[in-house]
Design a protein that fits this description.
This protein is an all-alpha fold and 267 residues long. It contains nine helices and no strands. 37% of the residues are buried. Bound molecules: zinc ion.
Length: 267
């Protein structure tokens, strides 16, 4: 039963990745993605048929090229599909068929969308952070009053951390990052949001230092890294391993009674 669920999750995740690719790409171009605007080859304008829209497989069968004009199709699209399949399988493996899986799944769509737009254009679209946050606040109703309040506290803390940083650093980070973290906060609740922020900043910091060591990034020259993909990595790790991380901390440190997680991430 579990194996089938994980396989179905992988297929669903790959399809979701394909859809999120389109949404992110069209949003950056300012085009509508909700209408019946068919997918076309960006080089020759050929309308893609069903056979050319199968996630992962189409790209492999066509060896990364358009069937009509032979133009290369970026490996990035298929990488996103593979990553989304892996994320979906990880979620079901960890959380099974549960409210936590549903909430983490909705949240993960927001993480992927915002990472894609931030990576490609440096823009965070508020709607891609706010929509998953609102959906998860509504899902939290199933967990009762405290679950909803925890989501609101998460949103407030996620936004608040960045508001403080933005004010103190006089524009070192953008308000897009604050809105992103507010949406994530509603998905994750207070404690996981705080840990996600820590994990995301650490991931970004290590990556930046590594890039400086190999000479691809230079200190103080106005070069910037997109922050959202790193925050997203921190969030996803926390969504999966949060309970283990918090029970590890509570075994070793004081305040252990404050480290238990609330619905739906209960230990
Ligand atoms: Zn073509």
């Amino acid at each position: 039963m579990m194996t089938q669920a994980i396989i179905i999750a992988g297929i669903f995740g790959a399809c979701m990745g394909s859809f999120l690719n389109v949404v992110a790409h069209r949003s950056i171009q300012g085009r509508s993605w909700a209408g019946n605007d068919r997918s076309i080859c960006e080089s020759c304008g050929h309308v893609l048929g069903a056979y050319e829209l199968i996630p992962i497989l189409s790209w492999l069968l066509q060896r990364g090229k358009c069937r009509h004009c032979g133009a290369k199709i970026s490996v990035r699209y298929v990488l996103v599909e593979i990553i989304c399949a892996a994320l979906a399988m990880t979620i079901i493996y960890r959380w099974g068929i549960s409210w936590a899986s549903l909430i983490v799944g909705v949240g993960a769509c927001g993480l992927v969308l915002n990472s894609l737009t931030d990576f490609e254009s440096g823009d965070v679209f508020d709607i891609f952070a706010v929509a998953p946050g609102v959906v998860c606040l509504l899902l939290r109703i199933a967990g009762g009053k405290w679950a909803v309040l925890d989501g609101l506290a998460g949103a407030a803390s996620g936004w608040g951390i960045f508001a403080v940083i933005i004010v103190l650093s006089r524009g070192g980070m953008g308000w897009g990052d604050a809105v992103f973290m507010a949406g994530v906060g509603a998905v994750m609740g207070l404690k996981l949001t705080l840990f996600s922020f820590y994990a995301g900043i650490m991931a970004g910091g290590f990556f930046a230092v590594a890039m400086m060591i190999i000479g691809r990034l230079h200190w103080g020259k106005g070069e910037t890294l997109p922050l959202v993909p790193f925050l997203a990595i921190g969030c996803f790790i926390t969504m999966i391993f949060g309970p283990e991380i918090f029970s590890y901390l509570s075994e070793r440190y004081i305040f252990s009674e404050y480290l238990s997680l609330s619905w739906p991430f209960t230990n």
